[in-house]
Amino acid sequence: MQSVKWKELLKKEFEERIAANPVVYLPMGLCEPHGHIAALGLDIIKAEYLCEEAASRWGGVVAPTQGYQIHEVGYHATWLADVVGNVNAYMTSIPTGPMLYFFLYQLRAFYNAGFNHAIVITGHAGGNQHDFRVAGKIFMQKTDMTVSVFSDPELTSGKYKGDHAGKYEISQLLYLRPDLVDLSRINGWEKNDPESRFAQGEDISEANAAYGKLVIETCLTGIHHAMLFDRTGQQKITKRSLLPLVFIEELWRELKNKELITVTNSDEQLQIDVQSIWEPSAHYFIP
Question: What's residue 135's pLDDT?
Answer without folding.
Answer: 98
